[in-house]
Write a structure and sequence with these properties.
Methyltransferase, Cobalt-precorrin-4 Transmethylase, Domain 2, alpha+beta, 7-stranded antiparallel sheet, elongated, 11 helices
Length: 404
Amino acid sequence: MWKPTSEESIQLAIDERTLLESSWLDVKAATGDSDGARRETAKDLASFALDGGALLIGIAEDKATRSFSLSPIELHDAVEKLEQIAANRVDPPLHIRVVEIPSQANSDEGYLYVEIPPSPQAPHMVGGIYYARGERTTRRLSDAEVVRLHMQRQVRDQAADRALRELIARDPVPLESRQTGHLYLVGEPLSGSGEMAREVTRSLNNHLMFDLRQVAERALPKDLREIAPSIGYAQQLVRRARGAAFSSLENGSRALRDLQQDRTMVDVEVEESGAIRMTFGRATDLSGRGESEVIFDVLAVANALRLVHWARVLSEKTDYRGAWAFGLAATNLHGLKSYQAFAEWGFDLDYDFYDRESYEATTAAHVSELENSPGAVADRLVGGLLRGLGTESKYSEHLGGRSA
């Protein structure tokens, strides 16, 4: 796919008549300031979300001669406006990546190259209508196409749900022996080879696994990285039937060690297929003062972000550029309040108890979103729990949506 890097490269493509609108590229003179113009831009973005594509903005078209010319736009706030269109006018919100290309004559003006990766949440609507990209234009999806695409999405959602069910069933602590609620997280590459992480998990002396852990953990904010039980509790690297794991569990039996409590349990497994499985104790525990049992929502936030970063780094190391399915579940939550709420306000205030026994959420994301907006992906996993506890504002810094 052609990707412009400068005004000169755009002009060269125009001069050589290789700049052509296609099923993966559309050119526009401007994003537009009117409601109708913003709607048209939203339709263009949504149409590319099925198979991926790009918009090049700042190019005028002479339809009579089917030729193009440079028409640089004001760059001030242009990226933010596009991201707002993708977030607010496309349903579900669409992840895009926008690159500014300044004009040589005036750096305040230039062009926008907008990459729209294939969306695992496609199809996307604008104004209640689903769109797709034709050979050179945007077209409306038929009802039959929409049904088929939603069935494909359902299959992807089921992949994460099935992985969660299997992980919960493999919990090494018998239900009757658990002292705390447990947290489970899964990541599933949706288009991998089935052995994409074989070299990583079976590397000589497992140096690639240690490197994966180091790079991914470094990306976590320090205040979340050290939430107990942290990855540092998993001091041994062990081989598993399907890959390798950092674990605090007894090697071989995959059970708690003698005198170990399940609140200190950490097990992070990477399979040869690239699948990631994480199990943590202490989704619930006694409060710091030992007075009441609470939900450790901060642990869920930390590990939702941890899962996203592990998937991102693993994708980089295996050259995987597809989509991921993710899932998160927490147990034994009914009738408890947030640790965050208790730590700040105590239980004297009229604050909500969680009214469900467990929490589950799944989502999907393309690798480009893991790279550019990890907090947005993590928010789709853990945001429902935080809203149920009333603590979503406490984590907005870490789950704050799109990055530049």
